[in-house]
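F.,

This is the one I mentioned.
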């Protein structure tokens, strides 16, 4: 009688390098948290005291205003520049290219200083009227373009140059056949762009736009060089007042980390929303991943329970 073949016992491949690297990283993580917990130079009691100090909170509001206003200018300007860059009109495409070339080629710090000293270029009065003709409205330059306005203009116009390339890449990612099919149905170019191209391009545009928004939140700290009292400038002023550097740096870092986390979460769900057209199964949310991990753990515990002690998952 032939013997029955024995069941194959699969042995997982041993990966000692993976466990060694994980152990080394775990040691560094424990060292980092040990430093946070027991290094008194952080001054956690002072951090708790100054985290919601009225001066810091007001500076946080200014930082958020700079970020929102600059990104609105950047996104709107970026879309217009991208459409101009893709236009068949050589004047429009050339003007958009020159704009992008100039604002991407000069540092944003220099642009901040330039806008803060705009009165030295255009004079004390800004006139509005017919080009090369009479002017009907005159405004004082220094009172119109304040330090905050100069920061918004510099950050927003600089961001528009980068957003134009992001939007242009998104528009080019949509197959031309989509545009041709819509045009054959009699749709106008503006409607094609609004109804056909942009919704599909958003899947490519959203991720870098989220990164640019997070970067803008931190880049707004450069406005302190022209006298805008935002979060970094308020922290520096408090350091000179109380002679405590590290606690105020920690306070500023915690606020930046908080809003960066909020923006990252928002970016994740927006990306997930626009991924519906490219994938049948949407990626799970962090809460869904957690529930799956919990269910998998409970199933393993039920499978490997000793005989007579099995309890089904509740």
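My design for it:
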């Amino acid at each position: 009688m032939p013997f029955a073949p024995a069941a194959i016992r699969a042995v997982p491949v041993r990966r000692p390098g993976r466990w060694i690297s994980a152990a080394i990283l775990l040691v560094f993580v424990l060292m980092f948290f040990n430093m946070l917990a027991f290094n008194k130079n952080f001054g956690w009691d002072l951090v708790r005291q100054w985290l919601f100090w009225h001066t810091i909170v007001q500076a946080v509001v200014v930082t958020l205003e700079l970020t929102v206003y600059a990104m609105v200018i950047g996104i709107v300007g970026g879309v217009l520049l991208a459409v101009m860059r893709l236009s068949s009109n050589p004047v429009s495409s050339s003007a958009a290219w020159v704009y992008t070339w100039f604002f991407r080629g000069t540092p944003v710090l220099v642009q901040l200083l330039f806008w803060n000293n705009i009165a030295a270029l255009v004079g004390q009065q800004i006139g509005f009227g017919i080009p090369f003709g009479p002017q009907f409205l005159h405004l004082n330059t220094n009172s119109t373009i304040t330090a905050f306005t100069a920061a918004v203009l510099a950050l927003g116009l600089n961001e528009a140059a980068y957003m134009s390339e992001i939007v242009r890449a998104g528009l080019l990612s949509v197959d031309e056949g989509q545009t041709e099919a819509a045009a054959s149905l009699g749709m106008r170019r503006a409607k094609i762009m609004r109804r056909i191209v942009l919704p599909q391009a958003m899947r490519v545009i959203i991720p870098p736009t989220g990164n640019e928004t997070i970067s803008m939140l931190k880049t707004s700290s450069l406005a302190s060089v022209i006298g805008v009292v935002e979060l970094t400038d308020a922290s520096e002023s408090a350091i000179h007042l109380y002679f405590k550097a590290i606690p105020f740096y920690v306070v500023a870092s915690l606020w930046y980390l908080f809003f960066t986390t909020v923006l990252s979460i928002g970016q994740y769900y927006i990306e997930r929303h626009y991924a519906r057209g490219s994938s049948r199964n949407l990626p799970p949310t962090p809460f869904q991943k957690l529930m799956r991990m919990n269910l998998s753990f409970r199933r393993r515990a039920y499978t490997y329970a000793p005989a007579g002690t099995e309890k089904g998952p509740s």
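The chain has a mean pLDDT of 84.

Talk soon.
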